[in-house]
Design brief:
The chain contains four helices and 13 strands. It has about 160 residues and is of the alpha+beta class.
């Protein structure tokens, strides 16, 4: 498959990683506890952002490491990676004047990120299908049960 590069802002002030719905059009947006409850996010300027659900992405870093980050979906201009979530998942994040690194405490790997003027950006890769394709539809539990039940009754 082809690849699409995305840049996410490494944000030490964000409570959750969030992205616009346009970032990964080919990945289904699933309901989350927050979206079911009608919760909103509060932006840096104290405005409200509607919580539209969440996406589990399958990304690859420039170093070839794979990860399934979960991004909450809302009308933001650019994706934000919450440092608090990254640290909570078993990594350390180090900022320097020119960029920084995410240190994975489990396997010892590092993922560098760059500083672009006053913003820290981490590049990741999505497949072109995930970035631009049609989202896969969820399969209803009832359909799965019927399929399994019909197979069992044939044997």
């Amino acid at each position: 498959p082809g690849w699409v590069r995305i840049k996410t802002i490494v944000d030490s002030g964000a409570s959750m990683s969030i992205a616009p719905p346009s970032m990964a059009r080919g990945v289904r947006v699933d309901e989350s506890e927050m979206s079911r409850a009608g919760k909103t996010f509060i932006s840096a300027d104290q405005g409200r952002i509607e919580h539209q659900g969440q996406q589990v992405l399958h990304v690859t870093t420039g170093e070839g490491r794979h990860g399934p980050p979960i991004y909450q979906i809302g009308d933001v201009h650019r994706p934000l990676m919450a440092v608090s979530q990254t640290c909570g998942a078993g990594s350390h994040v180090l900022f320097t004047s020119g960029g920084g690194w995410v240190y994975n405490l489990v396997d010892g790997s590092t993922t560098p990120f760059r500083r672009n003027e006053h913003i820290y950006e981490l590049g990741m890769w999505l497949t072109s299908n995930d970035a631009n394709g049609e989202p896969r539809k969820p399969v209803a539990q009832r359909t799965i049960w019927r399929t399994l039940h019909s197979r069992r009754s044939r044997t």
